[in-house]
């Protein structure tokens, strides 16, 4: 009996090691915490009724290639992942917003639970006149990123900051979409941050 139990325990241990060893891509996750992203607001308890994302803010992973590819309109903040659909809910425009000043430099910060070979980081912002009570779509975003940071297939450390200038002339509430594109998979990570000018 003891031999059977011991064999079962060893078998379970080997299965766990195999899952961990083959899950390298799945452990490579990250999110923005400056400005505070919607997933971070859920994880730190600032916003309630967030579903599963509160336990794994680093997991908003979807297809890369944005804006020509990537998640469908209306599912961009969740990376097209229905498990995290609460991130796409505009909540009547009531997501807590980080105060920013248009035309000024700002430091964007990412946190990573594991690194991955990276193509680049891109930052998009909604157009003036965007309705904060609506979901984020490609047509609601400026067509070009206001900041692109090439990363040349390097792996980021556990935290990484980029400085860039916020577009001038921005007024009212907006969303900044940060996209972390992975070099050696078909995916990218998405983070929406609500901001107020």
From TrEMBL:
InterPro entries with a match to the protein in the record: Cellulose/chitin-bd_N (IPR004302), GlcNAc_Chitin_IntDeg (IPR051024), Ig_E-set (IPR014756)
Signal peptide stretch: 1-21
SUPFAM superfamilies: E set domains (SSF81296)
Superkingdom of origin organism: Bacteria
Keyword tags: Signal
UniProt region (Disordered), positions on chain: 61-93
Protein name listed in UniProt: GlcNAc-binding protein A
Ranges for domain Chitin-binding type-4: 29-195
Source species: Streptomyces himastatinicus ATCC 53653
């Amino acid at each position: 009996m003891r031999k059977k139990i011991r064999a079962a325990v060893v078998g379970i241990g080997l299965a766990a090691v195999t899952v961990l060893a083959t899950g390298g891509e799945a452990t490579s996750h990250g999110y923005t915490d400056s400005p505070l992203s919607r997933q971070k607001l859920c994880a730190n308890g600032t916003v309630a009724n967030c579903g599963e994302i509160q336990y794994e803010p680093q997991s908003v992973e979807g297809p890369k290639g944005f804006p020509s590819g990537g998640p469908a309109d209306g599912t961009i903040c969740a990376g097209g992942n229905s498990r995290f659909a609460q991130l796409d809910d505009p909540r009547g425009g009531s997501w807590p917003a980080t105060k920013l000043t248009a035309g000024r430099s700002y430091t964007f910060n990412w946190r990573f639970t594991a690194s991955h070979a990276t193509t680049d980081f891109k930052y998009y912002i909604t157009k003036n006149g965007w309705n904060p009570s609506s979901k984020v779509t490609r047509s609601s975003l400026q067509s070009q990123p206001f900041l692109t940071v090439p990363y040349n297939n390097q792996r980021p450390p556990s935290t990484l900051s980029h400085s860039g200038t916020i577009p001038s002339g921005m007024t009212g509430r907006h969303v900044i979409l940060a996209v972390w594109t992975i070099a050696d998979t078909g995916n990218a990570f998405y983070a929406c941050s609500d901001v107020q000018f």
